[in-house]
Amino acid sequence: MNDNELVERITALVDEEHRLRENTDEAGAHVEQLRMIEAQLDQCWDLLRQRRARREAGLDPDDARPRDLGTVTHYLN
Q1: Total domains present in the chain
Q2: What is the spatial distance between Cα 75 and Cα 56, in angstroms, rounded to a whole number?
Q3: The pLDDT of residue 24
Q4: Domain span at 48
Q5: Banded model confidence at residue 29, pLDDT cuts 50, 70, 90
Q6: CA 14/CA 51 separation, integer angstroms
Q7: How many angstroms separate the Cα of 47 from the Cα of each of 27, 60, 73?
Q8: CA distance 69 to 75
């Protein structure tokens, strides 16, 4: 996935997250789906950051690889 594709994926996930959160009556029914979206967002952002860091370091951004969800969802803020 290139940077533009990642940004498009992030945008789609954020739109889906907002759509699910808009209807507060059904928010509880979508808890697991929202968790998965949040985890996928973490993964996409991590990959985008990796690609940008590699590019800034003069390395090939295409060598960046998605990290597993367990890794990216347990980063400290």
Answers
A1: 1
A2: 22
A3: 64
A4: 3-72
A5: confident
A6: 20
A7: 28, 13, 13
A8: 10
Q: How far apart (Å, rounded) are the C-alpha atoms in residues 53 and 44?
A: 14
Is 28 within a domain? yes
Q: 68 lies in a domain?
A: yes
- pLDDT grade for 77, boundaries at 50, 70 and 90: low
In a domain, residue 17? The reply is yes
Q: What is the pLDDT of residues 48-57, one digit of tens each?
A: 999 999 999 9
Q: What is the pTM of this model?
A: 0.85
Domain-located, residue 77: no
Category of 58 on φ-ψ map: left (φ > 0), alpha (ψ -120 to 50) or beta = left
Stated as kind and residue range, the H or E segment containing 33 is helix 31-56
